[in-house]
């Protein structure tokens, strides 16, 4: 069995070493143009030339949770495209979202600003019941985030393509229930996969429906930058419809130095670090799935290309 590794903008050595240790019977090499045909590929943002050359692949394993960039390529029809189930990312995502949520709810940004001016002051405590949290996307990461938020006793809503039964969560599903989901949520957490149907889903119209249409909504975007129509956000913040936003992903990354998001007082920017791949756990998961495919067994995380995730 031959495995080829193609990791754009990532050093491959540690990945190759780990895969060799996890799959001692396999030949694992970094891809170079003209390399022999492989059975499986471990990739991150591979070029089309790699896919064209490795036309006989049976499995393509993405080392990140999102596969939108990979699905833009012309892929071999017989190859299974497999995404990660978790690999250490869900707990990181839960940490990030809970931190952003609590920072907003407890108004820690106010205290930070006061501390810079050596001021000693208090804010009146707010009620959790007034800050229902809506989680868009209830896959592995979304479910973990929703459950973590519920531990802090916030009301939690969830929206997904099909109904989900998750303890402690009020479920909304499909287009028919999308408006009701937005209206029932004051803080919106986006964990949707990026597809043509979800591109631009965070826009002036949808974000204005948060909190029953009343001012005070808050956005946390940890999925993909293209979910947000960036030009719509600042007017909503400046007009008071939204109270703020925490953004980890952007249409152009790195975020350009002259982008208005850097300097807006109601926007918190982080550099796409809400959940990073944990290499050891990822290698173990990919190795297990490769062995399952070789045995003819089904594997979790196979992407439905038509659906986009």
Provide a quick synopsis of the model.
This protein is an alpha/beta fold and 309 residues long.
Could you explain how this protein is built, in words?
With 309 residues, the chain is of the alpha/beta class. 30% of the residues lie in helices and 17% in strands. The protein has helices at 13-22, 48-53, 68-71, 89-105, 108-116, 140-151, 178-183, 204-208, 230-238, 279-294; strands at 2-7, 27-30, 40-44, 59-62, 80-82, 133-136, 156-160, 170-173, 187-190, 217-221, 242-247, 267-269. The longest helix has 17 residues, at 89-105. It is elongated.
Can you count the helices? 10
> How would you characterize the largest beta sheet?
7 strands, parallel
Mean pLDDT: 96
Q: Work out the number of β strands.
A: 12
Overall SS class:
alpha/beta
Content of β-strand? 15-25%
End-to-end separation in angstroms reads 27 Å
Return Rg in Å.
21 Å
Order of helices and strands: EHEEHEHEHHEHEEHEHEHEEH
Work out the helicity level.
Answer: 25-40%
- Gross morphology is elongated
Task: Return residue spans where pLDDT drops below 50 for at least 5 consecutive residues.
Answer: none
Strand order of the largest sheet: 8-7-6-9-10-11-12
Properties at a glance:
seven-stranded parallel sheet; alpha/beta; elongated; 17% strand; 309 residues; 12 strands; 10 helices
Question: What's the topology here?
Answer:
Elements: E1 2-7, H1 13-22, E2 27-30, E3 40-44, H2 48-53, E4 59-62, H3 68-71, E5 80-82, H4 89-105, H5 108-116, E6 133-136, H6 140-151, E7 156-160, E8 170-173, H7 178-183, E9 187-190, H8 204-208, E10 217-221, H9 230-238, E11 242-247, E12 267-269, H10 279-294
Helix pairs in contact: 1-10, 4-6
């Amino acid at each position: 069995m031959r495995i080829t590794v193609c990791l754009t903008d990532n050093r491959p050595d540690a990945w190759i070493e780990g895969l060799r240790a996890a799959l001692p019977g396999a030949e694992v090499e970094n891809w170079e143009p003209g390399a022999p045909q492989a059975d499986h590929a471990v990739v991150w943002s591979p070029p089309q030339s790699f896919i064209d050359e490795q036309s006989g692949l049976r499995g393509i394993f993405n080392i990140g949770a999102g596969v939108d960039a990979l699905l833009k390529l012309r892929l071999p029809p017989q190859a299974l495209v497999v995404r990660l189930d978790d690999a250490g990312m869900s707990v990181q995502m839960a940490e990030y979202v809970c931190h952003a949520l609590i920072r907003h709810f407890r108004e820690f940004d106010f205290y930070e600003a006061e501390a810079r001016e050596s001021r000693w002051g208090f804010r009146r405590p707010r009620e959790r019941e007034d800050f229902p949290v809506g989680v868009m996307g209830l896959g592995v990461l979304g479910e973990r985030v929703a459950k973590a938020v519920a531990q802090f006793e916030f009301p939690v809503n969830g929206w997904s393509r099909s109904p989900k039964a998750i303890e402690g969560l009020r479920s909304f599903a499909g287009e028919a229930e999308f408006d009701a989901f937005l209206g029932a949520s004051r803080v919106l957490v986006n964990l949707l996969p990026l597809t043509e149907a979800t591109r631009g889903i965070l826009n002036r119209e949808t974000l204005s429906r948060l909190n029953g249409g009343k001012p005070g909504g808050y956005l946390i975007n940890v999925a993909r930058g293209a979910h947000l129509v960036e030009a719509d956000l600042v007017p909503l913040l400046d007009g008071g419809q939204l109270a703020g936003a925490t953004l980890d992903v952007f249409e152009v990354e790195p975020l350009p130095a002259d982008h208005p998001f850097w300097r807006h007082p109601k926007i918190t920017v982080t550099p796409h670090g809400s959940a990073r791949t944990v290499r050891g756990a990822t290698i173990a998961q990919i190795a297990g799935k490769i062995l399952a495919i070789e045995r003819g067994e089904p594997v979790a995380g196979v992407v439905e290309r038509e659906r986009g995730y």
